[in-house]
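Table S2 (text version). Query chain:
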Amino acid sequence: MLDNESLLGEYLFTGAKAHSERLLAMIDRLLADSACSIKDIDLFAVSLGPGSFTGLRVGISTAQGLALAAGKEIVGIPTLEAIAFQACGYCDHICPMVIARGQEVYTGLYRSPAPGDLEQVREETVADPEAWLAGISEETVFLGSGAVRHRETIEALLGTKARVLPSLAGLARASSVAALALSRFTGERQYAPVTIAPRYIKMPEAELLFGKPAGSFQPVDRKASGRDEAKR
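Corresponding structure-token output:
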């Protein structure tokens, strides 16, 4: 939780118990510890993924519900960007890697022209580490669960151009999501809760098995829907 750029509070939990069982309790405790209520929140932020199919749906739907109940706006931040943000200042180029299925990783490439400033260089994707690393030639800092798992491959292919950060540095933090959301919120357009949707990058396994979307969690363009109805 941020007050402008000041951190009021943050909980980081990586235990085995499902986050869905603890999320609302952690939110209640954070608000109580910060002497705030939901009505005091001016802007909500949520991590969009990639990540666990169920975890993303639980997290995003919870944030949407709180924003709707409070009548406030919400900004979604891609998880890889939030992780990359945590390495701003280490090196000009930043490569977050998160374990996907098998040996693949969710990844992207960013640059940090100044501390706290983040720009995308290569789009988010899911890839084989060796194939992805073949396209990187700059001095780059790597972080995230995928970078830790594939440290030897990264260092073998890039040598002294690579710096792999410890596992703790690559945990996506709520404060990073909040800081990015705050920097991108302009107030010039609406950030409505219904426009938030998860970024899976790789199709969820249920969709791969059955060849169709699992659920209807994507945002609805109500204006477009109205035009379609009018045409009928």
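Notes on Table S2: Residues 212-232 have pLDDT under 50 and may be disordered. The domain at 2-79+173-220 is CATH 3.30.420.40 (Nucleotidyltransferase; domain 5).
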